[in-house]
Structure formats: C-alpha cells, structure tokens
Amino acid sequence: MTAAPFRVATLTLNPALDLTVRADGWRQGEVNAGQSLQLDAGGKGVNVASFLADWGLSVTATGLLGSENPERFEMLFRAKGVRDEFVRVPGATRVGVKLVDGAAQETTDINLPGLAATPEALQDLEARLDHLTADHAAFVLAGSLPPGVAPDFYARLTARLRAAGRFVALDTSGAALNAALAADVLPDLVKPNIHELEAALGRPLGGEAEVLNAARELLRRGAGLVAVSQGERGALLVTEREAVRALPPRVTVKSTVGAGDAMVAGLVAAHADSLGLADAARRATAFSLGAITRLGAHLPPRAELDAFAAQVQVDAAERVETA
C-alpha cells in the first residue's frame, strides 16, 4: 500500500504584495536611481508555501486575502501547484515595499497595515482549518496578525491542532508570539530570530549560553524544537536532547526578504523526512541560502541546495543548563 503524501498547510492572516525595488547605494531624502522592480505575492506563510512547493511537497495555503487584488497570489499558486484555500475578504491586500541595496547587501522594509478581519471571515477560516486537519500532517502558522484578530489566535489554534495530533510550526512576533509562548500548549517548532526572542522573553540575550538557556526554557514549557536565527551568525537549533549551531558559507546576497521563511520551510521539509537535528540544520540553512541568492520566494534546483547544505558548518552547541 502506498503511503499517503505528507501534506502541509500554511496560514497567512496578513499577506502582502511585496514590491521589491533594487536601488544600489540609495540615499534617504534624495532622488535615487533604481535598477529593477519586482512585484510578488508575499506574506510569511505564502513564502513558506512557495518554498515547500519548490521542494516538491504537497502544500495548501490558507488565510485572509483581499478580494480586490488576488491575481498575483492566484498566479503563484497555479504556477507552483499550491492548493488555494484562502478566504476572500472585501478590500485590497496590503503592499509591502522592500528597498534593496545590492551594493551594501541591505534591505529596508516598509510594511503597511493589513485588512481588518471580520468575525464572519475568521469563522469561515477556522472552518476551513478544521477541514484541512483531516488530511494535512503539518501546519505552519506564520506572520503578523491583522486588525480584528486577538493576540491569542495562534495560541488557541496551536492547542486545537496539537490536540488533533498535528505538527505545528510557528513563526511570528510581538503580542502574538508572547501569547503563544505563554500558553499551556506550545507549538512543536518555534522559530524566532534573536530580536523576537529577546522581546518575547523581556530580556537581552548577550551570548550563546543565554540563547541556549532561553531556548531550553521554551522546551520545558512544551516546545519540541526551538530554532533561533541570527543572520550572518547562523542559527541555533535546540531540542530536549541536543543543540547545534549552523554557520552558513558566505554568498552573494540579492535580497534578505524571505530568508527566515525559507528556514521554516527547510525545517518542515526536514520533519517530513524525519531528519536528525544536524541534517535538519543543514537543510534549513541551505533553504535560507537559496532564498537570499535570488529575488522572490523561490528555491534553486536541488543540486544547488545540496551544494549549499554541504558547505554549512554544523557544530554541537555548548550545553548550558539553568538552575
């Protein structure tokens, strides 16, 4: 008997059309020359869905999408074979502006507010999520919450999904992350960057020992894997039994947009293949490298990803226990 495919559902409550403008050496307050412009369907969960589809997994994307400008999203989903389960809501999906300075390898983000979520739209969305629970093994809850959504939305959804035996990955920040980490049931995978983790815990994390202790604090609360991304310094991945540090090779960066989303996708793909922590770190870092070496949420061919993975340095992180 053929095993059922590993299906992943991604949730994006606050998607955006990412307008990426490359303007090398641009200066604030001056007239600047741009080299290129690109408009992509975006939002953290949409990006994760795009990366996972490139990898070859069966993916469903859901969330809230403005009915006035869904075309870019629909084109992306058709092109990549992603099942579209977004709830259409009145109005236009927000635009996020990305100013990319290729010379300095820096990206400046300008994020506009999203559409307000109505109780009716959220009720429709939760019904769709309940339906997806029947045949999807993993759920990725990603991105900010739009107006009209309570800060504990992800926390409540995590409890429902984990009670149904589903793998839950969370990538958010601010009040939504605070509520999720303070809940009785935590996600299987939590992937904050270092600044988001500091904000959620309310204290600075000065060195690796403090980051490890912070991660283990979340593990004791019920998380299964904590992955803390730290930009060029790589990432720390921590489970109850082990901790590894993944350091990426130097590459030419075209845009940092979506790097964290690619890491989430890599970790979910690693979970689908039951990889050990070191190999999961290599795959997740390779996904991030693949993302930052091109514009838009697209992965390179597997051969290139394998080459990146082979260049990732993975070491055992110092085990530091708290009293």
From TrEMBL:
It catalyses: beta-D-fructose 1-phosphate + ATP = beta-D-fructose 1,6-bisphosphate + ADP + H(+). PROSITE patterns: PFKB_KINASES_1 (PS00583), PFKB_KINASES_2 (PS00584). Residues 21-299 form the Carbohydrate kinase PfkB domain. InterPro entries: 1-PFruKinase, Carboh/pur_kinase_PfkB_CS, PfkB_dom, Ribokinase-like, Tagatose/fructose_Pkinase. Keywords: ATP-binding, Kinase, Nucleotide-binding, Transferase. It comes from the Bacteria. The keyword DNA-binding does not apply. GO terms for molecular function: 1-phosphofructokinase activity; ATP binding. The lineage of its organism: Bacteria, Thermotogati, Deinococcota, Deinococci, Deinococcales. This is 1-phosphofructokinase. GO terms for biological process: carbohydrate catabolic process; small molecule metabolic process. PANTHER family: 1-PHOSPHOFRUCTOKINASE, 1-PHOSPHOFRUCTOKINASE-RELATED. Belongs to the carbohydrate kinase PfkB family. Its EC number is 2.7.1.56. One of its GO terms (cellular component) is cytosol. Catalyzes the ATP-dependent phosphorylation of fructose-l-phosphate to fructose-l,6-bisphosphate.
